[in-house]
Amino acid sequence: MNGVTLQTVLDLIPEMILMGTAVAVYILGAFIPAKRLWSGVAAIGLAAAAMVMWQRPDAASGFAGPIVRDALTTQFRWLTLILGFLFLLVTSKRTGGDLAAEFVGSLLLILSGMMLTAGAGDLLLVFLGLELVSIPTYILLYIGRKNRESQESAVKYFYLSIVSSAVLLYGFSFLFGVSGSTSLAEIHRALIATDGSASWLPLGGLAMVLIFAGLAFKIAAVPFHFYAPDVYEGTSNANAAILAVAPKIVGVIVLARIAVMAMPNLGEYGIRIAMILAVLTMTVGNVLALWQTNLRRLLAYSSIAHAGYMLVGLAVAFDVRWRILTNNDNQLESTGGLAPVLFYLVVYSLASIGAFACLSAASDEKHRLETTHNAAGLARRHPLVAGLLSLFLLTLAGIPPAMAGLFGKFTIFWDAMRLAQLQEYQSLFTVLAVIGMLNAVIAAGYYLRVIGSMYFRPADTVDRAAGETGAFMAAVVSCILLLAIGFVPGFVAQNSRDAADGAAVSFEQSLTAVSTPAEAAADLANSDSSDSLSNGVATR
Amino acid sequence: MSTLLLITIFLPAVGAAFLAAMTEAGHKVVRGVALTFSLGTLIAAGYLTWQYTELPMAAAEDASSTATASERENFAGVDYPWFESEDSKVSIHFSLGLDGLGLWMFALSALLVVVCVLVSWEAIRDRAAGFYSLLLLLEMGMLGVFAARDLLLFYVFFEFTLFPLFFLIGVWGSEERRYAAIKFFLFTFAGSVLTLLGLITIAIASSASGELTFSIPQIMANLKAAPMSAELQFWVFLALFAGFAVKVPLFPFHTWLPLAHVQAPTAGSVLLAGVMLKMGTYGFVRFSLPMLPDATVTCMPWILWLSVIGIIYGALVALAQRDIKRLIAYSSVSHLGFCMLGIFALNRLGLEGGVLQMVNHGISTGGLFAIVGMIYERYHTRQIAELGGLAKRTPWLAFFMLVMTFSSIGLPGLNGFAGEFLLLTGMFQRGWYGGASSAEFLTIAVLAVSGVVFGAWYMLSLVRRVFFGPLKEPMLHDGEPEVKDLSVREIASLTPLAVCAVLIGLFPGFFLDQMRGTLNDLSAPAMAKYEAHRDGEAPEVVQAASNMQSQPLIERQ
């Protein structure tokens, strides 16, 4: 990691505020066992980070040392902060009993990890960010609920997460091997500097496969999805909300930044992997969800299926980058595929948090809202919660009046169909779109079953659950945001397009702009060494 | 006019929001509010329709009348950007407007919702605010479908109609309502997701060069300049077919319909039969004919066969029913087959007849479902065997039943005759000038005529068994009031439908004139393709045929 300057440190102030708050909460929490206090402190920490972001807007300066500053970074740091507030609301009541401080601290670390990952321009920092999301998650899972299932799910997640990190790191090592640097800009430069015939390209492909495997765990894509249903079912609603959203966001961002953007001439591998995984993930997730009766398990399978839709967009993005690199007669926007995925990610995150928050908002110790059977008659007991949950489920299904979800699916498949009009992968992308659409129908089947259960079935109990106010607030806020996105999709659409575009521009700038002679010389030396290194690897 | 159109479409939504906020109020207050909003919408829609008919007519062959033609095309146009990228590569507009194709269905939707509020007046007491709120939301979706001028906006409204009806069936339906609601939703949704892919492909293919747009008029213009390749058209046609054929429903895709109809509350059945099925046929006329002419010509014989199978199959199954509502549901399969037959006869007579028949079927079957609801409210049964001689007990009910039945079987002087006569003439004409496949088309036409006979058979035998003969009523339970004839409210709900049936029956020329210009524009590409495609036909005969078609055949003022 070279080029760390004062500027780098200044740029990371929001992340450091969150980490500092977390550390303070960890330490003081041992002495002051007030439950509510720590959520408030965390909210202040988030607000402070937001203030700093507001006062020091990121200059889209591209790669600078280990970090990268572009629209993608900015948008997702903001998204993380907004989601952070929602997470705090969802967790405000059930913050782990005596371990409230530990719970809140871990949550803050996860958020700082997400922000760090969004702005990481170096493999080491990427890995650091990802681990900063993973490791506190183990703690959250462990202190979330105290029973055997909860412990089992925590252990299961722990081991699988470690394995996936190892696989990812192994992939990174190959990437380092072929390019000779850990900086994404350097990797990008080294990779596209060669023509397609370089003998080490298969090693790059291997790196692609391993990175995909490691991140597929994060986004819960088939065949690395097995943990999700068990873990979601075993843990609390709030934890499930965090698990469904945080790893998926960082996973998609890192896939976008590294696999799609930094390795364009390995796109051929990427397209195939993304396509196969997309079809498998969508279909397996949706079909298995049909049989679920536990609501968190059902939402877990639905979150797997949504990873599949995002992979469709990533496959398109791979193809677009590949085309831009190879023949330059690109008829698509350079953001094709990626911008819809980012849009979809925003909609998915809000809808998932909202859905899990609704589960919390309509249950208490006595009346758990755990299964579709429990949901019977919910419309009578909790009409507002039932209405909100219906809206979130319709958003996930992509059915009007939940326009945000429809636009999410629409933009992804619109880009796929545009690619289908071009020659090369025509039939493949059409098939992908058709399979995706048919999957939307399967998905509608189980979402409607839940809605039908809430509205059409008589209740087995008339008692209202006390519910959690915080979670209800989170659901209301998510609902308002989703409705706003549905009526005025332009704002989020434009931002996600800017983000995708910004990420591409950063890499382009890094090719041309070398600011000082000293750095240029260093870069030259670097690229030399990388060549020799890659040759070395290839010949071995 | 533009503002009025927006008001017409969103007034129901305002009403729905209003009702959703008054869940605590009793059903008496709620139904009054619902009636106010639906009447307001009807008045606005009626005024719009009247204004449209006041516009100067554009004679189709008259080149000098382009100014008036565009005035009709741009009637009540609304256009706001909705989803646009900065570089304008994707532009989805919130674009609305009325034309001759959507006009009558638009007005009919507004009318039928008022009828629905009136027939639910006493029947719906449980969670009435939710019921009327969903009904008004459904109205907004239906009005939007017939006024949308943007592919995606059309799709959004098209899908938007699903969820209110899903709840109407699932919450207020009969015993098997949950299964029926989910089956209805999934069947239609499964078709329409493929329709979405088809619509996207149309937008992409039509704007391959220059700006990418979803605007329907723009796409029509682009496609006129540069049509899609025949192969692509075929696939897109199949994708659209998936959604629209399920909605219509065309023969093998109809299995959801009887279940949904029987389980739905009366208002749901009325709107389902009266309006929602027509969204399918509307889609074919709006998109398939003008945008995919090659594929339309290729698939035409298949669709004609499916339609005629549906006509006869629906009629035969209706003949065997013991449940009145189920019988009428199957009669819808048969009647919608007639609409499709007319539309895909690919000549002006058939198309005008088919589109007119869409409106006619909405009036007659909507009325029939309302009447079945009234019978059910009185006797709590819909079994034909348990009823008989009701004309003695409820003469007004019997009167309206007879009017709707005659309208449905096409008695001359009522609306059904005008539509069926036109579309069957169109089909025979297609057979006569059908070139090589003349015999095939004539066979289809003859089979379709047999469907008319079957239709008269099952409807008249239904009326005979239920309303005539010795009085037969199921035993009343203790404390139930004596069965009375129609109340003023019920008469008020059926009268407008009966009046419309008579008006369309007596003056079909007026209704046809309003749609002729639009239909000519929409069908021109497919008809031109068909003329070109047909072989072994002397050009003079074609000319003679088209001259004959341009004369409005029915003018009986």
Task: Report what the structure shows.
The complex is a heterodimer of chains A (540) and B (557). Chain A is mainly α. Chain A is 76% helix and 1% strand. Chain A has helices at 6-11, 13-29, 35-55, 71-91, 100-118, 123-144, 148-179, 184-192, 201-218, 227-234, 237-262, 267-289, 295-326, 338-361, 378-381, 383-397, 403-421, 426-456, 469-487, 489-512, 517-539, and strands at residues 62-64, 67-69. Chain A has a two-stranded antiparallel sheet with strand order 1-2. In chain A, helix 12 (267-289) packs antiparallel against helix 13 (295-326). Helices cover 74% and strands 2% of the residues of chain B. Chain B has helices spanning 2-20, 27-54, 66-73, 100-119, 128-147, 151-160, 162-172, 177-206, 216-225, 230-247, 256-263, 266-291, 293-319, 324-343, 348-379, 390-393, 395-409, 415-432, 438-467, 488-506, 508-533, 539-550; strands at residues 78-84, 91-96. In chain B, strand 1 (78-84) and strand 2 (91-96) form a beta hairpin. Chain B is globular, with a radius of gyration of 23 Å. Chain B starts with a helix and ends in a 7-residue tail after the last helix. Chain A binds chain B through residues 333, 383, 394, 399-401, 403, 406-407, 410, 413-414, 417-418, 420-421, 433-434, 437-438, 440-441, 444-445, 448-449, 452, 455-457, 489-490, 493-494, 497, and chain B through 23, 81-87, 89-90, 137, 152, 156-157, 159-160, 162-163, 166-167, 170-171, 177-178, 181-182, 185-186, 189-190, 193-194, 196-197, 200-201, 204-205, 208.
Based on the model shown, name its key terms.
heterodimer, A: 540 residues, mainly alpha, two-stranded antiparallel sheet, globular, disordered C terminus, B: 557 residues
Summarize the amount of helix of chain B as a percent range. over 70%
How much strand content do the residues of chain A show? under 5%
Separate helix tally of chain A:
21
- pLDDT < 50 runs, ≥5 residues of chain A: 523-540
Distance between the termini of chain B: 30 Å
Q: Pairing-aware structural class of the strands and helices of chain A?
A: mainly alpha
Q: Order the strands across the largest sheet of chain B as they lie in space.
A: 1-2
- How many beta-strand runs of chain B? 2
Let me know the average pLDDT of chain B: 85
- Over the alpha carbons, how many angstroms does the gyration radius of chain A reach? 23 Å
Q: Specify the helix fraction band of chain A.
A: over 70%
Number of beta strands of chain A: 2
Q: Hey, which two chains have the biggest interface?
A: A-B, 35 and 39 residues
